[in-house]
Amino acid sequence: MADEIEQRLVTAALGGDKAAFGELVDRLKRPVFGVCMAHLRDEAEAMDLVQDTFLKAYTRLELFRPDSNFRAWIFRIAANGAIDRIRRRKVRRAGEIDETVSADSLDEGPLPAVSTFGRASPFQAHHDAQLGARIEAALATLPEAMRQCVLLCDVHGYSYQEISDELGIPKGTVMSRLFYARKKLQQELQDYREEATRG
Predict the structure, then answer these.
(1) pLDDT for 26-84, tens place per residue?
(2) Quick one: fold of 103-198?
(3) CA distance 46 to 82
(4) CATH topology of domain 2-89
(5) Non-local CB neighbours of 114 within 8 Å, separated by 6+ positions
(6) In angstroms, rounded to a whole number, what is the distance separating the alpha carbons of residues 130 and 196?
(7) Contact at 8 Å (CB) between 86 and 151?
(8) How far are the Cα atoms of 117, 136, 140, 154, 193 from residue 131, in angstroms, in the given order?
């Protein structure tokens, strides 16, 4: 039912109904804030990015394909905005992975993605306070370079090549960072998986 209401609002907004777009903002501002916080880890900056995200979405509504997922489109705008802001911080990237790891030895799924830890996706899990907090804490332990790759791949559904293009790094580097990031996340969430198996 909620999806149907949201779809009707999207259709109305595409037809020029500003009030409908305002309702979409009210419905989506919390999950969009979650996307922004996951990337930026700064509340003030995340709130600012939420406003930028909806402004950009409103001014680019004609680019949205009606047969697409509106939430996914909004989340992608927010993620791209976060990446731009992180680039502008111009801080030295920490925790760079040794890029001599052979890309040939790292295929699409050498280790489970974050989304396999007990729920369909990290953002669905976000609504479960306990698991959401655990995942956020685990992600926070990753160096920024790794965390960005995990969020783009496992949360936003970017392909390895899209991440490579977006971050301006070789595809092999993306694969390497994901491999080590997922390995670390497995370790961080191991006790949760054991509890879930027992209970």
Answers:
(1) 999 999 999 999 899 889 999 999 999 999 999 999 999 988 889 999 999 999 999 99
(2) Arc Repressor Mutant, subunit A (1.10.10)
(3) 8
(4) Rna Polymerase Sigma Factor; Chain: A (1.10.1740)
(5) 122, 135, 139, 150, 154, 155, 182, 185
(6) 12
(7) no
(8) 9, 9, 14, 16, 10
Structure tokens at 32: 């969009």
User: For the whole model, what pTM was predicted?
Assistant: 0.65
Buried b (16+ CB within 10 A) or exposed e, 50-76: beebbeebeeeeeebeeeeebbebbbb
Kindly state the average pLDDT of the residues 127-147.
Answer: 79
DSSP letters for 120-186: S-HHHHTTSHHHHHHHHHHHHTS-HHHHHHHIIIIIT---HHHHHHHHTS-HHHHHHHHHHHHHHHH
Is the Cβ–Cβ distance between 143 and 94 less than 8 Å? yes
- Average pLDDT estimate for 153-163: 89
Q: Which amino acid is at 12?
A: A
User: Which two structure tokens, joined as six digits, stand for 126?
Assistant: 């976000």
Any idea which residue has 């916080």 for tokens? 37
What residue ranges of the chain are covered by domains with CATH 1.10.1740.10? 2-89
Contact 103, 176 (CB under 8 A): yes
Report the mean per-residue pLDDT for the chain.
80
* 11-17 contacts, C-beta under 8 A, 24 or more apart: 11/66, 13/61, 14/61, 14/64, 14/66
